[in-house]
Specification:
The structure is a homodimer. By secondary structure, chain A is an alpha+beta fold. Helices cover about 35% and strands about 25% of the residues of chain A. Chain A is built from 15 helices and 23 strands. Chains A, B: Its EC number is 6.1.1.15.
């Protein structure tokens, strides 16, 4: 059997919806509130493994986990004017408690900069307490007016990991943004997710930021998806809230801040990018089940009993070795039905055990990603599985990066970009003079969105709009 | 130094507020929304360890974790009429998205019976899929009109673990309630929290339940606190939502349900019950730090350097042994200040290392609960600490149970109850005829609340109100 990625790429949207539902990951569109989903048990485990991964990376780098209230009073949200402008059209408001009208409207947090800055001003008063790095993993809410899509554009983002840091100087905060970029790079690498890191253009930075660095990937349909952002907030919020910190020389000043976030989109991307026509292929780094053991029925009962016992032993060998495995030994489904079921759940390795394996004291291993199989001696099973898992992990990332790189193309003229993005999608890079006018013109001409520019400027070529010498490249794509 | 519990018991409320703030557990009353708190890093870790404990117990017993939306549409919440009556005065309502009025008000979930039943009706259609046990750990919201108190009576309960199960018959659901009671018993036992298990009276059962079983403990001020409940929901919700399941004989029927929950109150109780005048004493089962190592400064620099190196080795020995420890080696605070700091954080064991310990190759261990110290040879340190932790764990539970049992008293007349509850607090048990009239009369007479009755009826004595023969005991207490 050969891997086919026909349906996966040619009708990604349908593929994705079907996988979420059939693999019992995320029930979307049936709960009677628009734009929210339900995490089902299998999906919850995938999500939890991804959360544990980012938690570990953040804990290792001195971030401290906290939990802030969901409700943000209107006056607090309005403290930073740029910020509220960026969000106010999308805020859900609580206006009633029981039968009473509330005196002050309460926002369901769209993000937590103001709430956290408010508490920081009570907690962190002296320079010796800085730098400080907090994070929380919570639901945030956006009253989206655009078309919603499961996990990708929702009204309740259930997996919003937001980090918030405080520093004495602009430079330290800038370094923190670099650390965030490193952490996210490591995180996406562990998930085998390819990305471009861009500095968002001035006209599309976070509301209330000095600048925004963003991670974008490409979905199978060729549209770019923002999967992580890191913002240098400067003194915007601390000034707006009149929050000062005492310095070593006993004077005081507004501290600098950063914030950076990822969301449910990471889960969507892991599922989407490694897929094929059989469903998703979960990277071993986060798969809830690494190996599914499927007994192939024997003709006589005695062999069948031995075979099941063999399968049980294999299962317990794997579990003792710390390899999460499941034995699917029920009689109610045929092996074929079981294959389908576990392929749809993206389990990296299938271990088949039939009469032949019983005779030869072997197990037949099948890789979910390549659909290739091989026979392994029982006493070599654990190392063989470990090696295969490592190979799958590596190969998934390599294939995803290869797909990705093929679709990031440089153009010297706007017509080429237009044609490219409307035909296949992808990300186009063009030379750019650096002016907002020309940047917006690019968006208008190609009917797509500017993602921004590389962090290390590339001054080659001439601006595709005005023809002046380029100051940097501009990346542009159709986006979600 | 002797353990004193004077301040702890005589002014518990002040003690509790001070501990939450000084130990940096939970910032309450400063965030500008009434009745909500902020989990600070140390408190977050305590909370997380408690969550991990209940997660493990639920996973082991076949519960599957899920995540449902926060928002419940008004018409869905109104499906079960008893239920909504019980909650509607306490519901926060979202009525606006951006500038738009929503067509249908959305409730911030006060609990999730209706939301979960709605999805179960889509997921679980045949008897072979039952029983099914879900749980989630989420924030729920109550627009409390009573005085709020940190963790104990809040408007955002951030640590609401709610389990929801579906069964084919009434009896199976009743058995599930028993399982829930067993799980919670184990959970509270691991936390050293004493409790009484009562069947709540008819007039105080969960809104929409057949019956409610509750766990109550006593706070140091003698008031009872409900810390867990399990409800047999019968077919109330499935009938209200017209949710039927196909049975083996191909007919169909409304399934039976249960739900059971615990909240932030568990964290409050762990902190409150094991405290003394120095602060809380965390049970080793959930303490984020088990051992704090404090070097006692030497007079000369050379000894000091050796001493610090010794302390570092001890720290790494403990960490290698899987014992979570912290070395507080900073020069900025005196040992006395450090003692105070870590006692206030309830760390079970303090390991002091000074010139004498260096000379003798020993470590001086001090128990947080008894404040007793002893010298331990370095090569016996790990087993000694393991043993001491186990002893502390056991002793904390025993002391808490002893305190608790002393305050649960049986009375044969209502005057005794009245006097007892108004003087010291505690729980009073009286003989009861079983009638609601007499039950409510007890509440009125003693100005306290009926907790309910033992699960195994105790028919001794005569009803304290009407004098008829008792059918069971009635438990009554001043409550939170």
């Amino acid at each position: 059997m050969k891997v086919s990625r026909q349906k996966w790429s040619s009708n990604f949207s349908e593929w994705f919806d079907r996988v979420l539902s059939e693999a019992e990951i995320y029930d979307y569109g049936r709960y009677p509130v628009k734009g929210v989903g339900v995490w089902m048990p299998y999906g919850f485990k995938i999500r939890q493994n991804i959360i544990n991964l980012i938690r570990r990376l953040l804990d290792e780098t001195g971030h401290e986990e906290v939990l802030f209230p969901l409700l943000v009073p209107e006056d607090l949200l309005r403290k930073e004017s740029e910020h509220v402008k960026g969000f106010e059209r999308e805020v859900f408001w609580v206006t009633k408690g029981g039968e009473e009208e509330l005196e002050l409207k309460l926002a369901l947090r769209p993000t937590s900069e103001v709430a956290i800055t408010f508490m920081e001003s009570l907690w962190l008063k002296g320079y010796s307490q800085l730098p400080k790095k907090f994070y929380q993993i919570v639901s945030v809410f956006r009253y989206e007016t655009k078309a919603t899509r499961p996990m990708i554009r929702v009204r309740e983002l259930t997996t919003f990991k937001e980090a918030h840091t405080v520093h004495m100087t602009y430079e330290e905060a800038a370094k923190q943004v670099e650390e965030a970029v490193q952490i996210y790079s490591k995180f996406f690498d562990t998930l085998g997710i390819p990305y471009l890191i861009s500095r968002r253009p001035e006209w599309d930075k976070f509301a209330g930021a000095e600048y925004t660095i963003a991670f974008d990937t490409l979905m199978p349909d060729g549209r770019a998806l923002q999967i992580g952002t890191a913002h240098h907030l400067g003194q915007h919020f601390t000034k707006a809230m009149d929050y000062k910190v005492t310095k070593a020389d006993n004077t005081s000043d507004y501290p600098h801040q950063t914030s950076y976030g990822i969301s449910d989109r990471v889960v969507a991307t892991v599922i989407a990018l490694h897929g094929d026509d059989h469903g998703p292929v979960l990277p071993p780094s986060i798969a809830p089940v690494l190996v599914v053991i499927i007994p192939i029925p024997a003709k006589d009962e005695q062999t069948q009993a031995k075979l099941l016992e063999f399968a049980r032993q294999i299962n317990s060998t794997l579990n003792s070795a710390g390899i999460s495995s499941v034995l699917d030994g029920s009689d109610e489904r045929t092996p074929g039905e079981k294959y389908y079921y576990w392929e749809m759940r993206g389990v990296p390795i299938r271990a088949e055990i039939g009469p032949r394996e019983l005779d030869n004291d072997t197990v037949f291993l099948k890789r979910r990603d390549t659909l290739e199989g091989k026979s392994v001696k029982r006493d070599e099973l654990v190392p063989a599985i470990r090696e295969t898992l490592a190979t799958i992990q590596k190969d998934l990332a390599e294939r995803a990066w290869r797909d990705f790189k093929e679709r990031v193309k440089r153009f010297e003229d706007i017509q080429g970009v237009k044609k490219y993005l409307s035909e296949r999608g992808g990300i186009a890079e063009v030379p750019w003079c650096g002016s907002e006018t020309c940047g917006l013109k690019v968006e208008e001409e190609v009917q797509a969105r500017v993602l921004g520019s590389p962090l290390i400027p590339n001054g080659e070529g001439k601006c595709v709009i005005c023809g002046r010498g380029a100051k940097n490249s501009l990346r542009v794509a159709k986006t979600y």
